[in-house]
Design goal:
heterodimer; A: alpha+beta; six-stranded mixed sheet; four-stranded mixed sheet; 16 helices; B: mainly alpha; Arc Repressor Mutant, subunit A; globular
């Protein structure tokens, strides 16, 4: 059994079942909404209603008096959906957009809905993204297209954004969506209005609820006022949260895009990553330089690039993606995108782990090579120690300060000079007592590798030279790694053996390489330079340190 | 290029012409017009017709009058205006030209 409603359609009385009435009413409203801008909408509606009435009349008889859902559906099938009228009313729609507007906003179908963003495939060049977004913001799409076209050249960032938008923004398929695409302009007023509407609705429901529960009329007024006040505060609060949320999301999207551009620039533009970790030391390196210096040689850089793009790029893209969805209020879900993104990220993660393990493996063994430096014992009692300055060094530069681009990684610096990249490291020097009665210089080169042999190979590849000039020893201030060799934790340690009662003089520059040298005065490394030191029975002792008293002997 | 759009555009021009032609043989009310158009498979859904009629009326190519019907509500009979007749004549000429030239182009392959 079904309830029927009595309906007057174009002057004819019908008994229509409730569900059928719902459908018919919605249909008519949809058409009405569709023609809202057309001249003579009412007349068209009358014609259509008359025709529907005519058709429904054929469906009822004395035996079957009620109009059923089935009947309405068949009538709608004959008349066609408002979407199918599309081609016909376009012109009129565009010529009098504003005439019936205020009247039309009372109708309940999509036309007065908030504007939503869709891809406008009717005006598309590629995917209708620009046309759609331009609709949303009431812009001429040509500006957006221009902007995108230009940004295509900025490391393809525009291209990427376009593709993302293409995926996220749904196509306007039905007429309802096409209407929403041009729907009520989104501005502050409208957002406020929409929020207000929601709150009114909520308040109404709450009121009803409250009235049902108990309604002494005297209290009503009071409560009403109170509710209005809370409603107002609620409105403001709700609005604020909304707006703040949007701003935050907007910045996240912006940040995502910026990072994405940076990532792409680093990878494809071969730009440098700069890390400013202290006022005096900056790190600049290109991924390729760094990669080719560190990665195992059987690991292709392409793989690493893919791993980085997947591992960092996918989350960034997801951030941009969901941010844009949120900003435009797109609810349309795309599961394929989600699963693809998850899968790609997992692949990226796997690759990163694989690369990490492979690389770590290449550092697993350590080896060192000892080399005694041929030398002539100095004529006098004193051996002078000095450092060969770097061409771009002046005497006062500090340890970290170099004018070239480089990457410091532990005791490592990648230097690019004269268009060539090579790696240098800083040696450290220790001064100990000699067992014999002659000076001795030993250079210990260490490096890592996947096995002892490999590590030894890397160690042997280190270039380091010490030059003797009469009674002065000049050390290089850095050691060099063959530019084709890998960075494998190479290090150089110089051991200077000083016989008892002999004296050494440390030039100021030596502060760069001496490291934690034991002495009886307890002088720090930088206090030891510019001074003469004599090797005693125990350790070095200062000869010309007036300020530095010998430390207590333990 | 959107093929659906092109098709719709093509049909659109022809539809107006056809409505005018159908009405040139005598006044009709919408259901009858629809029937004729359906016979010729020019219209898929009826809803298309009403906005079209409205536009033609607004352009003063058609006029209508109400007539009581025996079975149902009063009917709206559409009629060509003198302007509509003139319009139709021109369209007919254009159509003939168009058909010959289009056919020529197509057959020339």
């Amino acid at each position: 059994m079904n309830r029927t409603i009595t309906m007057n359609l174009s002057g004819i009385i019908f008994h229509i079942e409730e569900d059928a009435y719902e459908v018919l009413n919605k249909y008519l409203n949809a058409i009405k909404g569709y023609f809202r801008d057309s001249e003579g909408r009412d007349e068209i509606m009358k014609d259509i209603e008359a025709r529907i009435a005519e058709m429904l009349e054929e469906k009822v008889s004395n035996i079957k008096q009620a109009v059923l859902l089935m009947d309405v559906e068949s009538v709608i099938a004959v008349m066609g959906k408002p979407e199918d009228f599309a081609g016909e009313s376009e012109n009129s729609e565009q010529t009098n957009t504003n005439t019936n507007y205020s009247e039309a906003s009372n109708t309940s179908y999509p036309n007065n809905k908030r504007r939503r963003v869709f891809r406008d495939e009717d005006n598309k060049i590629l995917g209708g993204v620009c046309a759609g977004v331009a609709n949303y913001f009431d812009l001429d799409p040509i500006w957006l297209r221009g902007a995108f076209a230009i940004s295509f050249f900025a490391f393809g960032s525009g291209f990427l954004l376009y593709i993302i938008l293409w995926i996220i923004i749904p196509k306007a398929k039905t007429t309802a969506e096409k209407l929403e695409m041009h729907g009520e302009k989104v501005d502050v007023n409208n957002i406020g209005k929409a929020v207000n509407d929601e709150f009114e609705d909520f308040k109404k429901r709450m009121n009803e609820f409250g009235n049902k529960a108990k309604s002494p009329e005297t209290k009503d007024k009071l409560r009403d006022t109170a509710q209005k006040a809370t409603g107002f505060v609620g409105d403001i609060f709700y609005n604020m949260v909304h707006i703040v949320g949007k701003v935050v999301v907007f910045f996240l999207v912006f940040l995502g895009i910026a990072l994405m551009v940076a990532l792409l620039a680093t990878i494809f533009g071969r730009g440098t990553i700069s890390v400013f970790n202290s006022p005096t030391s900056n790190i600049h390196f290109s991924l390729y330089e760094f990669g080719s210096a560190v990665l195992p040689s059987d690991l292709s850089i392409t793989l690493v690039v893919i791993a980085i793009i997947l591992f960092l790029g996918v989350p960034l893209l997801s951030l941009i993606y969901s941010g844009i969805r949120h900003l435009f209020g797109i609810k349309h879900k795309n599961k394929i995108v989600k699963y693809t993104a998850n899968t790609l990220w997992l692949i990226g993660l796997g690759l990163v782990i694989y690369i990490g393990v492979e690389t770590a493996n290449d550092f697993s063994e350590e080896a060192s090579v000892k080399q005694k430096v041929e030398m002539v014992q100095p004529a006098g009692n004193v051996l002078y120690l000095d450092l060969k300055p770097l061409p771009d060094d002046d005497l006062d530069v500090t340890y970290y300060r170099h004018k070239n681009h480089k990457l410091k990684l532990g005791d490592w610096t990648m230097v690019s000079k004269d268009e060539n990249n090579f790696s240098i490291g800083y040696p450290i020097m220790d001064i100990v007592k000699s067992e014999t009665d002659s000076f001795q210089v030993v250079v210990v080169k260490t490096a890592s590798g996947f096995d002892k042999q490999d590590a030894t190979f890397h160690a042997k590849n280190i270039q380091y030279s010490v030059v003797q000039k009469d009674s002065t020893f000049i050390f290089d201030s850095y050691f060099d790694v063959n530019s084709k060799d890998k960075l494998r934790a190479q290090g150089v340690k110089i051991i200077l053996k000083v016989p008892k009662n002999k004296v050494i003089y440390l030039n100021k520059r030596m502060a760069k390489i001496i490291y934690d040298i034991h002495n009886l005065n307890g002088a720090l490394d930088n206090e030891m330079v510019n001074r003469k030191w004599v090797m005693t029975e125990q350790d070095l002792e200062c000869l010309d340190c007036k300020g530095l008293e010998p430390a207590k002997k333990n | 290029m959107n093929i659906e759009n092109t098709k719709a555009q093509m049909k659109k021009g022809v539809l107006e012409f056809c409505i005018l032609s159908v009405l040139s043989n005598g006044d009709l009310y919408p259901s009858e017009i629809i029937e004729k158009m359906k016979e010729a498979k020019l219209i898929v859904v009826e809803g298309t017709l009403y906005p079209l009629l409205m536009r033609l009326k607004n352009d003063d190519l058609l006029s209508y009058r109400w007539e009581e019907s025996l079975t149902g509500p009063p009917r709206k009979y559409y009629k060509l205006t003198p302007l509509g007749k003139q319009y139709l004549k021109e369209l007919k000429a254009t159509w003939a030209e168009l058909v010959t030239s289009v056919n020529k182009t197509i057959e020339k392959k």
